[in-house]
Amino acid sequence: MKVSTMKKLAFILLLIPLLNLVHAQKPRARAIGIPFEGKTGPYNAITDVKGVEVGYSTIISGQGKNIRGKGPIRTGVTAILPRGRNNNPVFANWYTLNGNGEMTGTTWITESGFLEGPIMITNTNSVGVVRDAVLKWYVKTGWYKEDFWYTYPVVAETYDGFLNDIYGFHVKEEHAIEALNSAKTGPIQEGNVGGGTGMMCLGFKGGTGTASRVLKIADSTYTVGALVQSNFGSKKNFSIAGVPIGKELKDTLNYEFKAPPSYQPGDGSIIVVLATDAPLLPHQLKRIAARVALGVGNVGGRGENGSGDIFIAFSTGNPGAFQREKFAKLDELPNDLINPLFEATVQAVEEAIINAMVAAETMEGINGNKAYGLPHRLVIDLLKKYKRL
């Protein structure tokens, strides 16, 4: 074989993984022309914060009439590891806009100021099994080295019962373990994946989305990354870049399902995980988590009565903060310099939600219930109509 031919073959072999990655990635909001403020990291993902890893388990099977315990199944689990496989707790705090939902482990986060393990997101009825699976994963992997230890896993949820056989309890221990073991850095999938598989949002198909912002404060550069499990909001309030998308598309591709009598437009939930490498203390992370609500509001969330809007923020700064027997020396960003992080938080959350909707594809679930994917072309036409492009 000629040398030139061998070089070409080697180049093609190097391209194959990249081509597979491109094929696996769904369209993203910026790629189809939606405008956003702010500078992103290289992946425009929560994994732009160094050390953060994300993994999924996606469970899709069956179609037609719902037979409890058999399906159809449209659900999954998402895992976020703040420092990857490195068990080194991070400063954290949390905030709830409307509390019709669940995030376990938050009482101790409030008291201690630390997040001591991964963050898991799944469906409403699977919080318990996922929580137990995390404890078993700790034992199996030797996450804790001490003979005596205790922990309170953080597991959050949103409700996927319109598309998924949620009372069939299809999420098992192995699915949570799969999400944890598959966690990685770099670009991550969005849309109908992980815990976001069966979710709906603002009148269209929702799911998992992510985004990031890079900013300078004084002489330092910091990153903010958001990951959302998006299952909230009423179509009439849906907005992109200030354009009333939901009102313009009010008669276009509406959900197809028979809602129960108690259902109200806007019922649902959103879980947001916010990561940064800025050296923030727990009380400052509470302030960051509260600003997540502004990003949710920008796209149409109103914290409705039937929605569980729960947000958690952590900082990978101060890697030596967690100590048991000695004093820790800490860096702290002055409060007077925190505003750029507030702005980055709002921007990243807003884009992560839209990324989830852009990537999500039309999905039919139990009993023929259907959630339609966001119509990209119509959205771009509306942005042009309102002179946002």
Q: How do the strands and helices of this protein lay out in sequence?
A:
Layout: H1 3-24, E1 53-61, E2 73-85, E3 90-99, H2 106-112, E4 114-115, E5 119-123, H3 127-141, E6 154-158, H4 173-181, E7 200-201, E8 204-205, E9 207-217, E10 220-233, H5 245-248, E11 266-276, H6 282-299, E12 307-315, H7 339-359, E13 363-364, E14 370-371, H8 376-385
Parallel strand pairs: 5-6, 11-12
Antiparallel strand pairs: 1-2, 2-5, 3-4, 3-12, 7-8, 9-10, 10-11, 13-14
Helix pairs in contact: 3-4, 6-7
Outline the structure in words.
This protein is α+β, with helices and mostly antiparallel strands and 389 residues long. The protein has a single domain (37-385), classed as L-amino peptidase D-ALA esterase/amidase. The protein has helices spanning 3-24, 106-112, 127-141, 173-181, 245-248, 282-299, 339-359, 376-385, and strands spanning 53-61, 73-85, 90-99, 114-115, 119-123, 154-158, 200-201, 204-205, 207-217, 220-233, 266-276, 307-315, 363-364, 370-371. The strands form 4 sheets. It has a 6-stranded mixed β-sheet, sandwiched between helices. The protein has a 4-stranded mixed β-sheet with strand order 1-2-5-6. Strands 7-8 form a two-stranded antiparallel ribbon. It is globular and about 60 Å long. It starts with a helix and ends with a helix.
